[in-house]
Amino acid sequence: MQEPESAAFKIRVCMGGRCRMNFAEDLLKIAQKAAGESASVAVEPRPCLDQCEKGPNVEIVQAPAGEAVQILNGVTPNQMAQLSRSLLEEKA
Which CATH fold would you assign to the domain 4-90? Predict the structure, then answer.
């Protein structure tokens, strides 16, 4: 997988307690698999987003600015796969 510093986008999956209980680790794996060796999208875990009641939560960051573009709540495995593909296509 590509180093986060060189990617155009970062998918950051919340790994706070409640998100973990709601299968955030599965979402992280799905995004990592979709991104593969892409130079345009990096995938990484992140500390709690403090939106626990809405989890699992995912933050999309536009690099290199490092600012969150969007925070998605209640992300399902299908949504994560679709999000990963759409970010890869956007930079293709």
Answer: Glutaredoxin (3.40.30)
**Strand spans (E) along the chain:** 9-14, 41-46, 58-62, 67-72
Which residue in this structure is represented by tokens 């998605």? 72
Task: Give the C-alpha separation, 87 to 76, whole Å.
Answer: 16
Q: Residue 71 class from Cβ within 10 Å (0-12 exposed, 13-18 middle, 19+ buried)?
A: middle
| Geometric angle at alpha carbon 67, from 66 and 73, rounded to 5° | 120
How much is the pTM? 0.88
Give pLDDT tens digits for 51-87: 999 999 999 998 777 777 899 999 999 999 999 989 8
